[in-house]
């Protein structure tokens, strides 16, 4: 029997719908919300409204593009959390309605587990190298920065976490200070490619164990710019590429130093990155260099599976389907999972 999953992701500001058959992506559509750009961050109320307008047309297109008939769907998977409650409610209610109408099971998915399992997404006519367990993954997104050990598709142990801001937040908030639109991460990555990573230095936090902290970096970046702007009001404009490169350099080195420590502590060699910040070119390159040096079996996701997408919800839903892990229709979304 083939297993066809319709997957819905609506945890933050991307409305995404995918169709996955036996772990292989048939379609994966994402409607981004440009509306938040000028606000310097996601406005929850606007995000929920945009999901409400996008979810039906995106689902319609995803089904058409997949080439399947609606009756072939065996289950509906959706992001239960963590995320913005209003955004999650749109996807959850829609998934319930769809599952009920088709009389198929409903599958709740943890968004963070899905980011890690994005490494298991298969694609048509393409050979995919899959991680073995235990799999050590650095999950870096706009809301989370965690070091996770996956013992199986379903067993997840968090061994490192941020004690304040996430790595993506550090990119976005420092970008906002420089006057960049939200999300600043991709733009900083682009500008950094023309800058000098050693032009400015920012203090690295000292946090014990495998945990992270990024709020001090954000504050020191802010004070640094405030002082320089007093001397030269055009300081940011004149030094934008160097500022981006130096900021990116320190964020990547904070992330990498903890991941190296985690790899040494656990002895795990199958190592990957996931989440929106895993699209960062400096992080990807630094990971490749470390992998060669330390003999890691490295997993770097395709760009399309780094930021929020429904294909990762679908692959997680597929493994839950195989285990018969279904949800009751009384299930409610969780802002914190
Ligand atoms: O995983 P994601 O789409 O959403 C969350 O679950 O949070 O991650 C979004 C985050 C944003 O903070 C964005 O600035 C960051 O990922 N991001 C990047 C890059 N692409 C996305 N950060 C640095 N470099 C990039 N190329
Ligand atoms: Zn995410």
SSE inventory with pairings:
Layout: E1 4-9, E2 14-21, E3 24-32, H1 44-66, E4 75-81, H2 85-102, E5 106-110, H3 111-117, E6 122-123, E7 135-140, E8 145-150, E9 156-161, H4 167-177, H5 184-192, H6 215-231, H7 235-266, E10 270-274, H8 281-294, E11 297-299, H9 311-322
Parallel strand pairs: 1-4, 3-6, 4-5, 7-10, 10-11
Antiparallel strand pairs: 1-2, 2-3, 7-8, 8-9
Bound molecules: 5'-O-[(R)-(carboxyoxy)(hydroxy)phosphoryl]adenosine and zinc ion (ZN).
Give the strand tally: 11
Provide the structure class: alpha/beta
- For the biggest β-sheet, the strand order reads 5-4-1-2-3-6
Tally the helices: 9
Q: What pattern of helices and strands is seen along the backbone? A: EEEHEHEHEEEEHHHHEHEH
CATH superfamily of the largest domain: ATPase, nucleotide binding domain
CATH class (first level) name of the largest domain: Alpha Beta
* Low-confidence parts: none
């Amino acid at each position: 029997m083939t297993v066809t999953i319709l997957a819905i992701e609506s945890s933050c500001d991307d409305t995404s719908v995918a169709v996955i058959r036996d772990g292989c992506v048939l379609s994966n559509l994402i409607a981004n919300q440009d509306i938040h750009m000028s606000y310097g961050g996601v406005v929850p109320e606007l995000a929920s409204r945009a999901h409400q307008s996008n979810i039906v047309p995106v689902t319609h297109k995803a089904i058409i593009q997949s080439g399947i008939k609606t009756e072939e769907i065996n289950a509906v998977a959706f992001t239960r959390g963590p995320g913005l409650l209003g955004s999650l409610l749109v996807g959850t209610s829609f998934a319930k309605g769809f599952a009920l109408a088709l009389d198929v099971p409903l599958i709740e998915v943890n968004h963070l587990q899905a980011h890690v399992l994005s490494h298991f997404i298969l694609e048509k006519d393409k050979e995919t190298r899959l991680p073995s367990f235990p799999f050590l993954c650095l999950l870096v997104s706009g809301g989370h920065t965690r070091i996770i050990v996956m013992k199986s598709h379903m067993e997840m142990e968090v061994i490192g976490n941020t004690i304040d801001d996430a790595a993506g937040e550090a990119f976005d908030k420092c970008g906002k200070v420089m006057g960049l639109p939200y999300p600043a991460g991709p733009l900083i990555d682009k500008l950094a490619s023309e800058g000098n990573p050693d032009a400015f230095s920012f203090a690295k936090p000292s946090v014990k164990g495998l945990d992270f902290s990024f709020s001090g970096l954000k504050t020191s970046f802010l004070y640094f710019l405030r002082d320089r702007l007093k001397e030269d009001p055009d300081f940011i404009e004149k030094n934008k590429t160097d500022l981006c490169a130096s900021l990116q350099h320190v964020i990547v080195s904070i992330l990498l130093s903890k991941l190296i420590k985690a790899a040494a502590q656990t002895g795990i060699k199958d190592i990957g990155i996931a989440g929106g910040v895993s699209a960062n070119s400096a992080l990807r390159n630094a990971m490749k260099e470390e992998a060669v040096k330390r003999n890691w079996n490295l997993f770097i996701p395709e760009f399309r599976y780094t930021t929020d997408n429904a294909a990762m919800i679908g692959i997680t839903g597929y493994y839950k389907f195989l285990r018969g892990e279904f949800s009751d229709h009384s299930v409610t979304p969780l802002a914190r999972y």
